Amino acid sequence: MSQLLRHGWGIVAAPFGSDVMAFSAENLNLLEKVRDFRVCLALLAFAALLDVFLVAVSGSNLWTFKWNDVTSRPGVWLLLVLAYSVIMTLGAAAIATLVMVVLGPIVRKIQSWLDVSVVQENPDPQRYVHQWEAEKALAHMDESVRPKTVEKQLAERAAEVGRWHALVGASWVGVALVALDWNIAGSGIAALAQWHPWAPWLVLAVPAWACAYHMCVGVPGHDFIDWPEHAKGLARNQSGAFVPMPSA
Fold it and tell me: H/E/C letters for each residue in 39-100?
């Protein structure tokens, strides 16, 4: 008997009780690559914003701008850096929230039509509990008796989710800036379209994949915590909650 686990780049099958079931960060290849990929997204977003800025200010793009003129207008470049900082912080959260509000219901409707479920199933109810169950149990325990391993798992998962959400926000910013740059006449992305029609789509796909993954699947990995003692207690309570009626 095997259980499908959502692995870094897809789905893998693993038997119950195997070491793969640890749900540790080491098993989440996709999350391990988030930090490096976010750097690439930041560079791409800055390049797209810089290209838009150059077209608006000088009429040139990244490919044709005379970079010897950079030192002649330092104040303008400072404003560019400030604008980039605001976009990557406030703009990322705003764009990601707006898109999820608008497109989220559409994606869920499509998933229901296709009968595709992304609800995580507990692979072993005798060993794992959901994150919110673990948090609720810890809230009723004194700090001195809280299992350190459980607290560590919760902290690691929270950090993973935070990194992923930051990546998705940066991805939406990248999509927005690349799309904006593409639709400006004389921009660098427009020049790529003249070279090969598929080139802008290739650039747009770099930030778009994380957005699509998040909308269709959510955060990579699992929200289950390895806590056998509490899991067995919950299982006993659930089995004892049903009392069969005596036969007439």
Answer: HHHHHHHHHHHHHHHHHHHHCCCCCCCCHHHHHHCHHHHHHHHHHHHHHHHHHHHHHHHHHH
Average pLDDT, the chain: 78
- Average pLDDT of span 111-120: 69
- pLDDT tens per residue, range 208-231: 998 888 888 888 888 999 999 998
User: How many alpha carbons lie under 13 Å from residue 149 in its C-beta half-sphere?
Assistant: 9
Q: Give the contacts of 16 (CB within 8 A, at least 6 positions apart).
A: 1, 2, 3, 123, 124
**Are 14 and 143 spatial neighbours (Cβ–Cβ below 8 Å)?**
no
On whether the CB atoms of residues 145 and 211 are closer than 8 A, the answer is: no
Rg (CA), the chain: 24
Kindly report the backbone phi and psi dihedral angles of residue 129, in degrees, each rounded to the nearest multiple of 5, phi listed first.
-125, 155
pLDDT at residue 109, rounded to an integer: 79
Between 33-37, 95-99, 215-219, the lowest mean confidence (pLDDT) is in: 33-37
pLDDT value of position 208: 93
Cα 128 from Cα 88, distance rounded (Å): 37
Query: Do the Cβ atoms of 204 and 198 come closer than 8 Å?
Result: no
Q: What is the DSSP letter of 26?
A: G
If one counts every other C-beta atom within 10 angstroms of the C-beta of residue 42, the result is 15
Q: How far from 217 is each of 7, 9, 169, 201, 211, CA to CA, in Å?
A: 12, 12, 16, 23, 10
